[in-house]
Amino acid sequence: MRLTHDFRWIFGFTFIFFFSFSCYGDSPDVAKGPWYRYEPAVVNLAGVLVEKTVYGPPGYGETPEKDKKINIIFFELANPINLKADPADLRDMDDRTGVTEIQIDTSDSKASLKKFLNQKVTLRGILYEATSGNEFTSVLMLVLKAFRS
What we know:
Elements: H1 2-22, E1 35-37, E2 42-55, E3 69-84, E4 96-105, H2 110-113, E5 120-129, E6 139-148
Parallel strand pairs: 1-3, 4-6
Antiparallel strand pairs: 2-3, 2-5, 3-4, 5-6
């Protein structure tokens, strides 16, 4: 009699254990959306360009009364994307999932992008990972060309 009771307990525990892992496959943490690569790959992404005021140097928001306010152009993506890192590349080392906003690298293109603000556009460019304090999103884009969507 005791042996049967032990087998039922073991069977029940095993069933619950494996059932709980079979449900894990549909977890909301699973990356949805297309996968892209960081530089040097050229990508086309759709979304809306917006300009936001953020805190800049010296404290980037840690000392708002002293920090300079700067305007930055961001790209709000129409759909989330994922980025796959190249383990051999020391610049872009982290995979990213569910990216919905990208800071635009305006070192070459700010003036020409102003005409596209608050509009649906497709941007062609190169994605790279943030590496410094003046980068406000985990992923940035160097824009090569902009199109109205």
